[in-house]
Fold these 2 entries.
Entry 1:
Amino acid sequence: MSNASKGTALVTGASGGIGAVYAARLAKRGYDLILVARNTDRLNQVARRIREESGHTVEVVTADLGNAAELLQIETRLKNDTSISLLVNNAGFGSKESVLEASVDEMTAMIDLNVTALTRLTYAAAPAMAARQHGTIINIASIVAIAPELLNGVYGASKAYVLATEPLFAA
């Protein structure tokens, strides 16, 4: 851990967008980081920028959380790395096609990432955090969780799951 660190935050989907913004803001608030996403080049760019701006330790882990073996590696890290005090479950994707135009394989992959990976990572992190009586898990949802879009309801349903399970994980 860097000097004056609040611990380590593991952020999924950190190669851009909301995940990269969360990572940068958490570093400014004193966290060291573990950035997880599929795109190594983009992760390295985000990590370099955050290191330069914050001086905090930033580790890059390339992983496709839709891949069971790669997901298991991140689960294991969450279970065993006692420096991790914050998990941001941000990785996810939607579809620009209607349900009838999208393939069932794409919809299943969306559920695997948006629901299954989020659930598995939460279950991996929560027991250790509870035992230490210290830790936070942030699960990123979307406005379509409560105001579904007409185009593709699978994405909205996956984000509604995030909201529906939040009270269960809040123990």
Entry 2:
Amino acid sequence: MSLTFTGERFLPECAGEMVYEHWHRYLIAQQYVRGLRVLDVASGEGYGSHLLARDAAAVVGVDLSADAVLHAASRYPAANLKYIAASCIQIPQPDASFDVIVSFETIEHIMEHEAFLREVDRLLAPGGMFIISSPNRVEYSDRTGYKNEFHVKELDRAELKTLLDPFFPAQQWFAQRAAFHSMVWPVDAVANSAVALTADGESGFPAEVYFLVFCAREATRLAAVESQLSLVTDRELSVYSEWSRTYRDNAAMQAEIKALKADAAARASLPHVLVTAPAETSAPAPLRDATLVRWAKKLTGSH
């Protein structure tokens, strides 16, 4: 079966910056699951669990939606991968049965935050690692005024840390957001560092829209987590290409609007002639100006 995009779950067929954001998290997590038992909480469409299964010994994807689970199991069959339908606060798996648990863009969809963390703590094996992402309420919602209808309880950094501390005192925090940059990289060597620059001399790192946190009970478990800047794109540069196309279209429309306004101003300066339609004619006079007709078609998408 196929899933329909509703805005609640990401689908690989989606477009725009969310493609980079969702894949990026799983691509980072993939670096830390080789040969390990992995649980993907709120696995959704299944693409992320499938990616992790390329390197993990075994992966279990769990999602509340039975339809999502059926879709994932059908689309991503693999011997070391299975999907189950369950609540994230009551997952039918044995205690301490996973070496790595990932949960991306989950916590903001539920009210039972502490119950969820207790369940993660129960399922995580000694020496295990928990990787969680969460939107930063300050930047995601408060500053923009945007309200995601599927988010019931967003957190800021202090609130998320307060939630994690009792269960996982060892934490390594990363910030995430989609952004446009000019990239310069060595072509004859491997890049060994990264720097973000701006013309005004301030930090080139923007405000964080999402947090990505590596968590563990002991600090030694996070020693292998690299503190590095990570970039994700696709071969087609799809987001930049779409932005460029939209920018060109907008520039063309703005130019046409400017021309229409100038034409309207010129017409307004001419003497007006009142034309009275015959009494028996109730239909409005059709648009005769070719420029206005063309513009109306652009606005309505008609041809």
